[in-house]
Amino acid sequence: AQKVTQAQTEISVVEKEDVTLDCVYETRDTTYYLFWYKQPPSGELVFLIRRNSFDEQNEISGRYSWNFQKSTSSFNFTITASQVVDSAVYFCALSEGNSGYSTLTFGKGTMLLVSP
Amino acid sequence: ETGVTQTPRHLVMGMTNKKSLKCEQHLGHNAMYWYKQSAKKPLELMFVYNFKEQTENNSVPSRFSPECPNSSHLFLHLHTLQPEDSALYLCASSQPNNGGSYNSPLHFGNGTRLTVT
Q1: With contact defined as beta carbons under 8 Å apart, do A68 and A78 qualify?
Q2: Chain A residues with beta carbon closer than 8 angstroms to that of B96
Q3: Residue A23 pLDDT > 90, yes or no?
Q4: For residues A109 and A43, is the Cβ–Cβ distance under 8 A?
Q5: For residues B112 and B29, what is the distance between their CA atoms, to the nearest angstrom?
């Protein structure tokens, strides 16, 4: 069975600090996909990134970067120079790639509070 | 109008009421999903429709009844709910996966905040 663990329930930082959100996953499949979503107070989950299990290259998008390590089953998310607008709940999710649609298993989420 | 739209945004209902949640997507996707988000619990998948056919029912009680009349619309009919059903109900849609080599991200609506009294 697949499982996603986000051990950090809540993180508080001051603006301009760097922050890393941890994600550890479990799956028996060799083909799988990992996702990060952001949920601001408005409620909508906003898609941030998808990685497949074949590609361990780290990715950077502006202030966001992701570190995928199969050896430790981790897919961590770092925000550099955090801003107040980054305050939200962040979810890591896993999908096994053997059906015609995506059924995501989510972690419990990490609430990030960025204060000015 | 683009994206995934859910109505109503907030709903308060008694345990004997019947109500429906509506979801509409304007993204041309063929798969639609209902998720339940309760406090301090992971998002729980409830139902999946792929090309209008229900493909997943994640052991959801029968007091929740989904309906997918076409690929753009998804409903969740509610009746005789319990207080523990109070939660944020999220609708999502996605493109079909491409032979397993591409797992489409889900696009979510803002959700319906349901309170059962």
Answers
A1: no
A2: 100-101
A3: yes
A4: no
A5: 21
Asked if A62 reaches chain B (Cβ–Cβ under 8 Å), the answer is: no
Interchain CB distance below 8 Å, A95 and B103: yes
Are B42 and A104 a contacting pair at CB < 8 A? Answer: no
Q: Is A34 on the interface with B (CB under 8 A)?
A: no
For A29-83, how does the pLDDT look when each residue is reduced to its tens digit (9 = 90+)?
Answer: 888 999 999 999 888 899 999 888 888 888 888 999 999 999 999 999 999 999 9
CB atoms within 10 A of CB B18: 12
Beta carbons within 10 angstroms of residue A2's beta carbon: 16
In Å, how far from its chain's centre is CA A54? 17
H or E element at residue A50: strand A46-52
**Cβ–Cβ of A97/B111 closer than 8 Å?**
no
